[in-house]
Model the fold of this input.
Amino acid sequence: MSHNHIKIGSSAPNSSGVVSPSLSSDFGLASISDGEALGYTTSEGWGGVSVPATALVTFASYQSTSSFSTSTYYYDANDCVIWRNAHIIIDNSTYVTRNTASGTRVPVSTTAWTMSWDLKASALANKKIICRAVHMAKSLSGTEEIIYQWGVGTTNDLATYTPIGNKAQQNQYYTQTALGHYEMGGSDMILALKVTSVTGSVGILDGSSSFNSYLTIGIIED
Amino acid sequence: MSHNRIKVGTSVPNSSGVISPSITDCGDVSGTPSDGQILQYSSGTWTPQTIASSSAVSYIFWGHGESENYDDSPATTINAGDVIYVYDSAGVNTISGASVSSTTSTGTGGGEWLGSVTLPAGTYRVSLTCLPTFSASGYFAFAMYDGTTKVTATGTVGALSTTYSSGGPVAVSAFTLASSTTLTPKVVAASNVDTVANLLTSISESTTLLIEKLA
Done:
């Protein structure tokens, strides 16, 4: 029959006149490997490309969305910085869970605030974690300052810990960003923002300073 | 006409003999896609797939807050124009084509003092932190440089930071490099910063360089 003379690429009609072309081989696509998606490059045209990756998979964060009232409690050196639960977002609890503020290494024990983060090896093993924080403690004046740093360890209060980033300072003029980087192994790990030193009376977040604070914890590389 | 008998998958010619096939008319494409899915290849078949939550940001992270005296670095002074050396015993560089120029510490940590990085063409976001100690009230301003040209905002710290105008206490920026470029963390200005010997571990503990390749 005449329709047998028609082909799409190398695909010819069957006896019913139906052509079932192959996307892979009949449309001039460039080389394709398993796992790739259909995409376009200027060098090769349409073909297989790596599946686009998210820039950063953030799985926990803090961002104040409303004011609140709290009593004032002051930090000591080696305390964990505490974060108000109401403003914490955990996007994926298979990656991380919160540890309630309790014990001697927090300004106050309360179930309404979080002192550290439990990174789950079952989901994060061999992944590289990046964390950022700006923590604007209660408004400081004069020579008051606080210095904090991301650290990892094995107890919820990180009584002893390994630093994973810079010491960052807050004084009356500014609050530095604390960066942290850690490659997960095969065991769960506790992560916290630790106070390395304090000068003066430096209090926990209040309803105002909380708006000027944030943290993010995420995967920078699988 | 005979071509009216032809079908591509389930698509038939219109009255003018034109066939407008759908991608699903291809014999090696199957499945029903949902919003936001992509077409992914596997063992000869194309199927709609949800984009996995994966991250593949290539980056340099140097400065994990370890304690190493600054006089174990190549630095002899810490004045305007001087290189700020960034210490790490396990610095990370996953940017293809990027290189770190570093010097092995003469101190007990035995890690590497980063002096500069060379980045291939691309778009980057850079963050640089630093907090030296001071002999008296003063300020310390710092930034990343391409030669003598600043490529980040100036970060300024210290009790007198307000006397030196800057963009904040961290040097940050995002920019595109058209070709391979060497960037160096440098002192912009310094007032009453301790001597290299008296800085002790303050530089290694407070200085972190994070470079993320965005594109």
